Amino acid sequence: MTLPATPSPSTAPTAAPDLWKPVLLRAAVALVFGAVTVFWAAPPVPAMGWTAGLYLLATGVVLLWGARRTGLAAGSPQARLLAAAGAILAGTGAAVALLPSNLVFGVVGALGLALAGAAELILGIATRGRSVLARDWITSGIIGLGTAVGLPFFIDLGPHALLGVAGGGAIIGGVLWTLAGLTLRHDARGVSAEAVN
After folding, report:
1. Cα–Cα dist 35/28, whole Å
2. Structural element, H or E, at residue 136
3. In principle, which of 59, 137, 160, 197 could form an S-S bond with 120, CB 3.0–4.6 Å?
4. At what angle do helices 45-66 and 77-98 cross, to 10 degrees?
């Protein structure tokens, strides 16, 4: 069976017109954290904990805020999964910030990123064809899982190495979410222009 080149308007996934806002905010949080990790040559352990913790906490809060704009039905398993990913990241961020150490960041941070990444991966697979963010969640989940797998191997190398691994994942994710957010913003402008005409 051949699928149409463009889906019909009734079957195309839709999103809230302002979905691009939390998506771009998530991208900004990731890119700022990534930039800090690139240019910070010798971070002390407490500063590493606060920096990484605030990044994870902010990402979790943005996920929770944006969950209502994704087009997922409130209370659905998919909406609960996205909220769980946000809560996991926020809790992990608080733990990493309040208990700064290489071990906490390398183990607790990795566990939080792995759980949130797995949730996003499952969410993306479950919403393929029904959500405009499905592919982005799949990719973001893989990035989160990859970062989580790498973190424990760098515990003994210190804060700079740990931040480098987390920052690398954040930069890749930030670019992904920037492209997604700009695409959503462009599409939202097109829809509002059609509504005016």
Report:
1. 10
2. helix 134-150
3. 137
4. 160
pLDDT-based confidence at residue 130 (cuts at 50, 70, 90): confident
Q: Quick check: 102 pLDDT over 60?
A: yes
pTM over 0.70: yes
Query: Whole-angstrom Cα distance, residue 141 to residue 147?
Result: 10
Which residue has 């064809």 as its token pair? 129
**Least-confidence region, from 22-36, 72-86, 170-184:** 72-86
How far is Cα 107 from Cα 126, in angstroms, rounded to an integer?
28
Q: If 0-12 CB within 10 Å is exposed, 13-18 middle and 19+ buried, where does residue 9 land?
A: exposed
Question: Residue 7: is its pLDDT beyond 60?
Answer: no
- Alpha-carbon span 196 to 164, nearest angstrom: 47
CA dist., res. 34 & res. 167, Å (int): 4
